[in-house]
From TrEMBL:
Species this chain originates from: Saccharothrix longispora
Protein name (database record): RNA polymerase sigma-70 factor (ECF subfamily)
Family note: Belongs to the sigma-70 factor family. ECF subfamily.
Top-level lineage group: Bacteria
Lineage: Bacteria, Bacillati, Actinomycetota, Actinomycetes, Pseudonocardiales
This protein's UniProt keywords: Sigma factor, Transcription, Transcription regulation
Positions of the DUF6596 domain: 180-280
Region (Disordered): 78-99
Biased composition (Basic and acidic residues): 78-90
Domain RNA polymerase sigma-70 region positions: 20-80
Family matches, as SUPFAM superfamilies: Sigma2 domain of RNA polymerase sigma factors, Sigma3 and sigma4 domains of RNA polymerase sigma factors, TPR-like
Length: 413
């Protein structure tokens, strides 16, 4: 097997097995630091050994066994006094007791631990991206627009607080789930977004492993809370976005915008499931249950995926849904997305004025400059559009998006 094949195997194993290995180690040893470091050491050992011995037939078992040994070695080095107690726990596989009826899934336990309300929201997101998503500290720092050192410290403090506060590694009891699920949904959406449009130039522009994991965990949470509208809304939103993945990147590695995508390549099965969930939530809204953020976003995506051609899109309905969403979530990013619908309903000049008002809040956000560049282009301001494209390219980390923006800029001459 060539060196390239080994690297590909390790990359694939990291995408597919990182969260599983970390979750299993956390359940066994009850320590996030030990789990993370042992998992990292196991993958580092794989880089050395697989190049010599070849890729093992069962990479998951190899990584889990190696990581377990690394964890045991560390415990023996650091805590001789507790060695017998620790080893007895390892042998008997002791773990935390689950509440009655809880789903037996190690990764779900891990995400609820990382999303515990004792942690700040930013820490929950960062810790879950690291421990569950397997993103590196630089990748997470890019997602949060902070320095690597600040992000490293944030993750370290979060793990230390979990240990100091004895936060349990388990799925919460049924009566505690509603209060805990909001933070989990926010984390899942961020994990999904990182897969949908990766922030790092050093990875695949679209990471199906992350989107698939976010959807899998969303399905598990829906099993726990089948009547929660926002859980259903987030799952529908993810499915409708994921359905477009086969058409989102061209053969040359360039991002394909919604208007130019081959809609025949969209996943009809995922769209049908997403539409069914949206219809269920619309029925609940008709009965007087106000929809939340994810439900409205899912409805917007349902409108997009219902159109056979971009020209068939019901932009008035999209704008009406954004008007509803702004009342629920008056954030600058929602206002930016609303402006795209405004451009189709009221014209690009009106939309450009709305986007320009967001400049102070979104100056460091590449999508702000990319949207502004497109609107300036449509209104005939070529020189200003080029400058906006330059800024968007400078801020964008995704290689496919950068390629698309570069082509659009260069078309201006």
């Amino acid at each position: 097997m060539s060196g390239f094949d080994v690297r590909e195997a390790i990359t694939r194993a990291h995408h597919e097995e990182w969260a599983r290995v970390v979750a299993l180690l956390t359940r066994r040893f009850g320590d996030l630091d030990i789990a993370e470091e042992a998992a990292a050491e196991a993958f580092a050992t794989a880089v050395e050994r697989w190049s010599v011995d070849g890729v093992p037939p069962n990479t998951a078992a190899w990584l889990t066994t190696t990581a377990n040994r690394k964890a045991i070695d560390r415990i023996r080095r650091e805590s001789k006094r507790d060695e017998k107690q620790r080893e007895a726990r390892m042998v008997h596989g002791a773990g935390p007791r689950e509440p009655p009826g809880a789903i037996d899934d190690d990764r779900l336990r891990l995400i609820f631990t990382c999303c515990h309300p004792a942690l700040a929201v930013e820490s929950r997101l960062a810790l879950t991206l690291r421990m569950v998503g397997g993103l590196t500290v630089p990748e997470i720092a890019r997602a949060f627009l902070v320095t690597e050192s600040a992000m490293g410290q944030r993750i370290t403090r979060a793990k230390a607080k979990i240990k100091a506060a004895h936060i349990p590694y388990r799925v919460p009891a049924t009566e505690d789930l509603p209060a805990r699920v909001t933070g989990v949904l926010a984390v899942l959406f961020l994990v999904f977004n990182e897969g949908y449009l990766a922030t790092s130039p050093d990875t695949d522009p679209v990471r199906h492993d992350l989107t698939a994991e976010a959807i899998r965990l969303a399905r598990l949470i829906r099993d726990l809370l089948p009547d929660d509208g926002e859980v259903a809304g987030l799952l529908a939103l993810m499915l409708l976005i994921e359905a477009r993945r086969p058409a989102r990147v061209s053969a040359s590695g360039e991002l394909v915008p919604l208007a130019e995508q081959d809609r025949g390549a969209w996943d009809a099965t995922l769209i049908a499931e997403g539409h069914r969930l949206v219809r269920e939530r619309l029925a609940a809204a008709a009965a007087g249950v106000a929809p939340g953020r994810y439900q409205i976003l899912a409805a917007i995506n349902a409108v997009h995926t219902s159109a056979r051609d971009i020209r068939d899109t019901d932009w008035s309905q999209v704008l009406a849904l954004y008007d509803q969403l702004v009342r629920v979530d008056p954030s600058p990013t929602i206002a930016l997305n609303r402006a795209i619908a405004v451009a189709e309903v009221d014209g690009p000049d009106v939309a450009l004025a709305a986007v320009d008002r967001l400049g102070n809040a979104l100056a460091g956000y590449h999508a702000y400059h990319a949207t502004r560049a497109e609107l300036l282009r449509r209104t005939g301001h070529g020189r200003q559009a080029r400058a906006a494209y330059d800024r968007a390219i400078e801020l964008a980390g995704n290689t496919a998006e950068t390629a698309y923006l570069t082509r659009r800029r260069d078309q201006l001459g």
